[in-house]
Design brief:
By secondary structure, the protein is mainly α. The chain has helices spanning about 15-30, 35-50, 55-60, 65-70, 80-85, 95-100, 105-124.
């Protein structure tokens, strides 16, 4: 049975660390006889990749105690809404997740828009 690749092929260039981790995963999976240390390395490498997926970032961000401060009075978005506003990247950081959640704070968006408009009218 042919295994599916661990991640989907991505057009964007991943970092050297990610490429090295993916190479480690492929190398360890290709080994015929694995020691317990090899299984530990494989599990760690897979976790390193899995922890940067959109679903895991959403889970970490929504569990944060600071989420209500970031969102203000806005409701927590669904995973589908969250992914729609995430930037197109092969992997994400928790910072990317928090910055995406910030986009759902309607009061802050309105304040930034008003400040820009006031700045434009003051320049005229």
């Amino acid at each position: 049975m042919k295994q599916k690749p661990f991640i989907k092929p991505i057009i964007m260039k991943a970092s050297k660390l990610i490429n090295k981790t993916l190479t480690t995963i492929e190398t360890l999976k290709a080994k015929e006889e694995k020691t317990s240390f090899d299984f530990v390395r494989l599990a760690n490498a897979e976790y390193k990749i899995e922890s940067k997926t959109a679903s895991n970032i959403y889970k970490v961000v929504t569990a944060s105690e600071h989420l209500s401060d970031i969102l203000g009075k806005s409701e927590t978005p669904t995973f589908k809404q969250f992914v729609a506003k995430l930037p197109e990247k092969p992997f994400y950081s928790v910072y990317d997740g928090f910055m995406t959640m910030r986009k759902f704070n309607k009061v802050e968006l309105q304040q930034r828009k008003a400040a820009r408009q006031n700045k434009k009218t003051a320049a005229k």
